[in-house]
Write a structure and sequence with these properties.
About 40% of the residues lie in helices and about 15% in strands. With about 425 residues, the chain is of the alpha/beta class. Strands 4-10-9-8-7-5-6 form a seven-stranded mixed beta sheet, with helices on both faces. Strands 13-14-17-16 form a four-stranded antiparallel beta sheet, with helices on one face. Helix 1 packs antiparallel against helix 9, helix 3 packs parallel to helix 4 and helix 10 packs parallel to helix 13. The longest helix has 22 residues. The chain is globular, with a radius of gyration of 23 Å. About 45% of the residues are buried. The N terminus is likely disordered. The protein binds ligand 7TS. The site of ligand 7TS has 17 residues, from helix 3.
């Protein structure tokens, strides 16, 4: 019997030449070390070329004309939808007279934020009543909090929160108490954008369904980095953004189960989403057009398709394994620097995101990020749109390093060296010198 062998480790050096921006210098000859991938990733040449090609050779508006360019761009745009469908393993639909579309459950939006707002407005306003409960977690990005607070304001519903352990894991035992007969929707991120925590979404979905609630998964930080299978997960809605997964900004995805989407009223009205308009009113179009009012993100969607091709060729399992290595090394390096507090769980529970502070509070996150920038290292500092999470851990800001397939162990070591230097530096003197340069 042959023993199964692990996939060979991914070699980031193979991919780096595809990313023109990774070759640039910052601060006169300092190579860029890009560790801000949770905010947005960089793009490979293949994605940039897909955009250029669409603009140079095929560009027209979609679903409007019968001229050659129009037919070509329709094919590219709907091809991108099919690519996304396969990427998340959404079901393929049978076309019929009522709806000729074979990919009805993938809606193009402008990003995860738009996708979540669409559900809150459309599904939420139609289904949530005073006293109903919406369950979120304490680690959510504001994009998966504020739309639910707004829904609660509009409807008189109550937003409740799944608390966190001191390690930054969800306290799942609280679900017994928090999932009630009034829980209409659970909204949870698959991966936290600060803690890096990989949440047990399948278990949450199963328990939420047992309680009769619908589940939205915020996959903004998971879809780019690990395989996504909406059918295996059995989520009702899933939201993510193109720009965090090698694609362009301006395009995102909402997946929804067809029966839910069909029952939902359109979120926005306008061209492209109607089957008929009269002086008396309108009839909405079938899925997915019903939710794509106005001119959609045409070329960004086409380029997202190229990004999915790129990710598929590398392999999401391999990317996830590579990021685990980087995270493990980051924890080791930060521990050896000393004086740092990592906010979040042990590496085995997290994706490629590591947030930390100097335990003494000095230097501040802002100063650290500015110091690291002089070493060419791009990290993010601040609350990363998770103010309740930061409050939970008693800090107002963290420094965050976040990885992707093109990051190397050597870059993690550079981060460690720069942090060791930051720890030694007479900070006020260093920064005032930097400011006066
Ligand atoms: N959900 C999560 C978990 C996110 O991390 C983000 C963006 C969003 C939703 C919103 O995505 P958007 O594309 O619609 O803006 N997160 C971050 C971040 O961590 N730093 O900058 C943006």
């Amino acid at each position: 019997m042959r023993t199964p062998c692990a996939a060979p480790p991914l070699d980031p050096e193979r991919f780096r030449p595809d990313f023109p921006i990774l070759g640039r210098m910052v601060h006169e000859g300092v190579p860029l070390v890009y560790l801000d991938n949770a905010a947005t990733s960089q793009r490979p040449r293949q994605v940039i070329e897909a955009m250029t090609d669409a603009y140079e050779r095929h560009y027209a508006n979609v679903h409007r004309g019968i001229h050659t360019l129009s037919a070509e761009i329709d094919e590219l745009y709907e091809g991108a939808r099919e690519k996304v469908r396969a990427f998340i393993n959404a079901p393929r639909d049978a076309s019929n007279d009522d709806n000729p579309a074979t990919t009805q459950e993938v809606i193009f939006t402008s990003g995860a934020t738009h996708s979540i707002n669409l559900v809150a407005r459309s599904w939420g306003d139609a289904n949530v009543r005073p006293g109903d409960e919406i369950l979120v977690t304490e680690m959510e990005h504001h994009s998966n909090l504020v739309p639910w607070y707004q829904l609660a304001q509009r409807t008189g519903a109550v937003v409740r929160h799944i608390p966190l352990t001191d390690d930054g894991l969800l306290q799942l035992d609280s679900l017994d108490r928090l999932l009630t007969k009034r829980t209409r929707l659970v909204a949870v991120s698959a991966v936290s954008n600060v803690l890096g925590t990989i949440n047990p979404v399948r278990e949450i979905i199963r328990r939420a369904h047992d309680a009769g609630a619908v589940v939205l998964v915020d996959a903004a930080q998971s879809a780019p980095h690990q395989p996504t299978d909406v059918q295996a997960m059995d989520c009702d809605f899933l939201a993510f953004s193109g720009h965090k997964m090698l694609g362009p900004s301006g395009v995102g995805v909402l997946y929804g189960k067809r029966d839910l989407l069909e029952a939902m009223p359109p979120f926005m009205g306008g061209g492209g989403m109607i089957s008929e308009v009269t002086l008396e009113g309108f009839r909405p179009l079938y899925l997915p057009g019903k939710f794509e009012a106005g001119t959609p993100p045409i070329v960004p969607a086409v380029a997202l398709s190229a990004a999915i091709d790129y990710l598929g060729a590398v392999g999401l399992e391999a990317i996830a394994a590579h990021e685990r290595l980087l995270t493990q090394r980051t924890h080791e390096v930060l521990e050896s620097v000393g004086g740092l507090r990592i906010i979040g769980p042990a590496p085995e529970h997290k994706a490629g995101i590591v947030s930390f502070v100097f335990a003494s509070g000095r230097p501040s996150g802002h100063d650290v990020a500015q110091f690291l920038d002089r070493y060419g290292i791009a990290v993010r500092t601040g609350h990363h749109c998770t103010m309740p999470l930061h409050k939970r851990f008693g800090v107002s800001a963290t420094v965050r390093a976040s990885f992707y397939l093109y990051n190397t162990l050597a870059e993690v070591d550079k981060l460690g060296e720069a942090l060791a230097a930051a720890k030694r530096a007479p900070f006020s003197a260093f920064l005032s010198a930097a400011r006066s340069e």
